[in-house]
Every structure is written in structure tokens, then in C-alpha cells.
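Whiteboard transcription, Tuesday session. T.W. wrote the C-alpha cells on the left side:
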């Protein structure tokens, strides 16, 4: 198919230009100054059948990547108390077993739609698998993403150490071993790759060890080997909390980043969520290995994790992407909100305003930085001829975007609502006139409502096993 987007506004080096953009097949085929005639690069019969889109008063940007989320947590949005990560996790854990395969499917569907309608065209879903139904879980999530049509990286959350092992001094507490062996987990991951890794359909399996705090070296090395064998992205949580930093000292006698580097886990396909407690040396290693930090500012504040050293990372050349994180720790899944907070948050970490992030810079981080983090920068992440048409058209006539000043600054610093007018992914139009074309959103609303009315009686008990220990850490190590 061919689309002609006429008279759209795009950012150029300093300002804006009004252009016509031709999308043919999967790619951006031409970008020409507006009203200079139809670009003649496509075959005549395709142009004759082209769909013309009036782009006047609309801004075209490359799609963002939601570099880190957990789609199943849609069912926990608004549910989990304000708690620090280690205690919050126990509530999330208690709420998760109630989820069935249909819940996982609907969670991915809902996440995909939230992503599209806040400017995203790609998502990294660090996805929860239903125990003993792992293949069916991935199938349900992949089905949702394929139906919506955005690019989706599915990184099954895997671990081989129990929850208490993830806490400083936690191993000394009574606990059962993790109920599945490392070899079994890796074999299962390989089967998931064989069955579901379909880049040509926009479905990419990534290896997703939950984080060093709950993974053995054997599991991390096994994941890196799988990544090498099948050319998969690698995704993991990293140093989200101070407790995790203390645990790394205890577990390795080294920074977690040095340890991951020694295991061979860090490379240009590696994206690491959070990175709140990274040292300068850690940042140097992440830059050298071309790893990506996924910045999740909303989640980091909701869980009291801290403020990630993003400005320092950028100065050292680390690639930074944006993520929403799951809906249990960011009850909205709105990329523009995460980008807004990420743009403004660092004014309090650095008094020198010359280092502050600009809206243009953070949009580039969200798009090209995000694409780099999932090893797709050669295909997506910017408006360029020959790249995939993963693009978003924003309505500049919406009240939240008026009066007309600097559209990008207003898009990032304001509170844009319902401004995503159209979205294409890989040349296919997924959103038109603000409506998702590929799924019935009204039906999804009904299903989410119906399923919320069921007897989901949550009993948050697991916190009792951990809270006394956590409070003892709080009284000592975590307060230093
Ligand atoms: Zn997460």
C-alpha cells in the first residue's frame, strides 16, 4: 500500500518544515517539501491507488519505544499500595496467580493500545508467564500484539532463585529453593524462541532474566548464549534499588555491572531497566559495551527507588531509552507522561541548566534511543527515507495543543490528551482519526470491565514474610 501524507509538520535541525511524506510498502519512500508535486519514486499504479492523508496542522514524529513494561500488570493498576520495590513485589506476587491466559492476552492488548495512543510503535514486554503454562502464556501475549500490529519484544521473565535471595542477607532466612532447575528454564526459553520468534511479523522474543538479584550466573550465561545463537535482544532489571546494590556487594563483592560484563551479558543488544544505583565506573562500562539504560522515571518515583543518573550517563555516551514499567508501578501506561517527567526530573539532579534535557532531546531518546536499545536503529527510530514507516501523526488542533507555540515543547511539557491522530507501523496504518483500526476497543473495554467485576479477592499476605527483614535493613544498611 502507498500513503501520501501531505503538508505534515516535521522537526528539522532547529525548527520545523512542512513536507509531503510517501509511505510505500513497509518503508518511508520519500520526504519532499510540501506542494512540490507527488514524488515519483513509486510505481505509477501504486501512486494512483495511494491513500492521501491531509496532514495540515499535524506533526509527524518517529514512533517511540516503550523500552520496559510488564503487560500482565494492567490488572494491578490502581491496586498496589505505595510501597518500596521489595515490599511492593510481594503484593504484585500475591495478585498474580489469579491471572489466567485470557487475562494475559487482554493485558497485552491493553498495553499495546496504550502504547499506540501515547506515541509508541514498539514495546519491550518483560512478560510474566503463568507457571506450568509458559508456552500458552507467550502464545496469548504474541496473539494480542500480532492482532494490534505494533512491534513487540516479548521477554519472558525468568529467574532461578527464590524471592528472599533477592534481598540483602535474605539467603539466611528460611526459604524453599526455586521450583525449577536452570537447565529446565533455559530449555523452555529455547522452545519459546523456536515457536514464537518471528521478526518478519513484528514479534521478537528476547531473553529476559529478571535481574542479577534473582538469577544464578548459569542462568545469565545461558541467556547470553541463547541470545548469541538466535541473535536475540537481552533485557533485564538492573540496580533498581539501593537494596539491590547492597546485594551485589554481598553476592559478588563487585558491582553488578562489572559482574554482568565478566559474564558476557552486556553488549549492543542489551537493555537494562532502571539503573538507578549505577556508579560512574558502571556508566563507563555500559557506554563501552554499548548497552542501553531504560529510564522509568514514573515507576522509580512511585516505588521510592531514586533518580537514575541519566544526565551523567548521556555525558558518558550511554544510550538511554524510556520505559513506562508495568502498570503496578506506573498505573498509567502513557509514554508521553514518562517522557515529560524524564525531561523535567533532572533539573533537581544538576543545577547547571546548560546540562538540562530539552524536549527534542528526550523525544530522540524515546524514539532513536529506544530503537537502539532493541537493536533496531538501522530500521526505525527516525524519519528517514529507507527506514521502516513506524510513525505517529499528532493533531495540533486539539485544545491541549493550542494555542500554537512550539509543538514539540508543548507535546512534551504539556498534558496532551487524545492527540495521537494516526499511527503506522512497518507501513501499515494501525490508528486513524484517533481510533485503533485493528482491534475493537469498545469490546476490550467491556471485557476489562466484566473481568474486573469477578470475585478477585486479593489477600496480600506475603509481605509478612519479608517486612520485618526489610525494616531491619531500613534501620541499618538502607539508611546509610
Ligand atoms: Zn520492571
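and on the right, the sequence the group agreed on:
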Amino acid at each position: 500500500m502507498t500513503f501520501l501524507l501531505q503538508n505534515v509538520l516535521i522537526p528539522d535541525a532547529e525548527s520545523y518544515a512542512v513536507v509531503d511524506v510517501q509511505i510505500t510498502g513497509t518503508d518511508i519512500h520519500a520526504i519532499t517539501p510540501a506542494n512540490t508535486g507527488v514524488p515519483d519514486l513509486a510505481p505509477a499504479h501504486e501512486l494512483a491507488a495511494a491513500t492521501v492523508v491531509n496532514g495540515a496542522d499535524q506533526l509527524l514524529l518517529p514512533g517511540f519505544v516503550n523500552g520496559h513494561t510488564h503487560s500482565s500488570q494492567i490488572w494491578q493498576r490502581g491496586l498496589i499500595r505505595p510501597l518500596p520495590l521489595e515490599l511492593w513485589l510481594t503484593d504484585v506476587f500475591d495478585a498474580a496467580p489469579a491471572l489466567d491466559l485470557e487475562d494475559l492476552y487482554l493485558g497485552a492488548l491493553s498495553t499495546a493500545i496504550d502504547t499506540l495512543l501515547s506515541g509508541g510503535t514498539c514495546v519491550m514486554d518483560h512478560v510474566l508467564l503463568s507457571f506450568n503454562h509458559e508456552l500458552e502464556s507467550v502464545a496469548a501475549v504474541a496473539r494480542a500484539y500480532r492482532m494490534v500490529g505494533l512491534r513487540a519484544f516479548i521477554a519472558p521473565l525468568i529467574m532461578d532463585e527464590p524471592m528472599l535471595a533477592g534481598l540483602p542477607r535474605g539467603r539466611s532466612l528460611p526459604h524453599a529453593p526455586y521450583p525449577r532447575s536452570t537447565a529446565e528454564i533455559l530449555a523452555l526459553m529455547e522452545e519459546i524462541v523456536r515457536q514464537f520468534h518471528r521478526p518478519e511479523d513484528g514479534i521478537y522474543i528476547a531473553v529476559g532474566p529478571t535481574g542479577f538479584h534473582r538469577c544464578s550466573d548459569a542462568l545469565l550465561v545461558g541467556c547470553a548464549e541463547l541470545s548469541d545463537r538466535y541473535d536475540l535482544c537481552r533485557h533485564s532489571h538492573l540496580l533498581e534499588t539501593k537494596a539491590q546494590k547492597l546485594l551485589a556487594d554481598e553476592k559478588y563483592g563487585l558491582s553488578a555491572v562489572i559482574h554482568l560484563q565478566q559474564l558476557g551479558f552486556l553488549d549492543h543488544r542489551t537493555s537494562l531497566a532502571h539503573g538507578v544505583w549505577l556508579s560512574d565506573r558502571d556508566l563507563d562500562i555500559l557506554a563501552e559495551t554499548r548497552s542501553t539504560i531504560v529510564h522509568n522515571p514514573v515507576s522509580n518515583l512511585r516505588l521510592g527507588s531514586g533518580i537514575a543518573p541519566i544526565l551523567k550517563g548521556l555525558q558518558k555516551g550511554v544510550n538511554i531509552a524510556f520505559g513506562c514499567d508495568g502498570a503496578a508501578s506506573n498505573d498509567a501506561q502513557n509514554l508521553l507522561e514518562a517522557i515529560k517527567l524524564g525531561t523535567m526530573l533532572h533539573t533537581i539532579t544538576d543545577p547547571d541548566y546548560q546540562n538540562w534535557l530539552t524536549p527534542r532531546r528526550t523525544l530522540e531518546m524515546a524514539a532513536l534511543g529506544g530503537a537502539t536499545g532493541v537493536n533496531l536503529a538501522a530500521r526505525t527510530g527516525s524519519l528517514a527515507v529507507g527506514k521502516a514507516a513506524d510513525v505517529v501523526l499528532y493533531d495540533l488542533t486539539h485544545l491541549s495543543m493550542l494555542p500554537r507555540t512550539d509543538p514539540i515543547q508543548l507535546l512534551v511539557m504539556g498534558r496532551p490528551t487524545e492527540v495521537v491522530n494516526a499511527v503506522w507501523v512497518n507501513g501499515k496504518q494501525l490508528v486513524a482519526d484517533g481510533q485503533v483500526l485493528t482491534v475493537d476497543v469498545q469490546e476490550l473495554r467491556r471485557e476489562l470491565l466484566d473481568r474486573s467485576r469477578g470475585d478477585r479477592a486479593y489477600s496480600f499476605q506475603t509481605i509478612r514474610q519479608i517486612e520485618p527483614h526489610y525494616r531491619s535493613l531500613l534501620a541499618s544498611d538502607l539508611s546509610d
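Someone added at the bottom: The mean pLDDT is 95.
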